[in-house]
Amino acid sequence: MPTNKDFKRLVRRRMHKTGESYTSARAQLLEMGSSKTQRTTAPVDYAKLAGMSDTALKAKTGCTWERWVKALDHVEAYTWPHREIAKHVHEKYKIDGWWSQTVTVGYERIRGLREIGQRRGGGYEASKSRTFAVPVVTLFRAFSVARTRSRWLTGIRLTVRKATPNKSVRITWADGTSVEVFLVSKGPEKSTATIQHVKLPTQESATQSKAYWAARLDALAELLTP
After folding, report:
1. Are 55 and 47 in contact (CB under 8 A)?
2. What InterPro entries does the record tag this protein with (predicted)?
3. If both were cysteines, with which of 25, 95, 107, 173 could 20 make a disulfide (CB 3.0 to 4.6 Å apart)?
4. Hey, is 81 helix, strand or coil?
């Protein structure tokens, strides 16, 4: 158990890294300590808190959630900002970008730093993926070319901030939220689009956004079907 002086040092370190007030940083660290105590008296369903099964995680990273939590708690990663945790997982354990993000987000959920669907900054996000039987260049045009986009994404005012050919499209929605589209080629006639709708105000809006994008991707699939 850290001394009072040690604990204050941890609080100041968290304040420096996260920009939180002293009171907020102290409350988060006290919650971390409470969680550790609870683990000694009752089992914690890490997979449920993280939103992904141990089986799926271990298949891709070699470790269960319990092992990741122990490893990251050991270096006090709960005091770090999101980017620093993801960088540590990627560089120290050689976990590729997508899975280092998965480990980081899951760990943050387990440690109470964010809810499922919530970003560390406090806003919420919704994500949806779909694989299409078309080349990635065709999928890119469906998102980046206004005339094509209007055939499946109707009645929406938006601004395309940046479009990187065959890789990504970043869009600002009329309400100020942001949509990030990531494209991956799966072969000459197959590609995947992953949509992340971020800066959503509530968990309910994130749930609604996920349903909306499921319906819009159905419409896109119908448009792209010969």
Report:
1. no
2. START-like_dom_sf (IPR023393)
3. 25
4. coil
Cα of 4 vs its chain's centroid, Å: 35
pLDDT given at position 35: 53
Q: Considering only 23-32, 139-148, 153-162, 176-185, which range has the smallest mean pLDDT?
A: 23-32
**132 contacts 139 by C-beta, under 8 angstroms:** yes
Eight-state DSSP code of residue 63: S
Structure tokens at 205: 């809006």
DSSP code at position 118: B
Which residue in 69, 12, 9, 13 sits closest to 38, CA to CA? 69
Q: How far is CA 13 from CA 50, 118, 157, in A?
A: 25, 24, 43
- DSSP summary character for residue 119: -
One-letter amino acid at 47 equals A
Looking at residue 174, the DSSP 8-state letter turns out to be T
For CA atoms 89, 3, 25, 44, the dihedral sign is positive
> pLDDT-derived band of residue 122, with 50, 70 and 90 as boundaries?
low
Q: Is 72 exposed, middle or buried (0-12, 13-18, 19+ CB in 10 A)?
A: buried
pTM of the model: 0.55
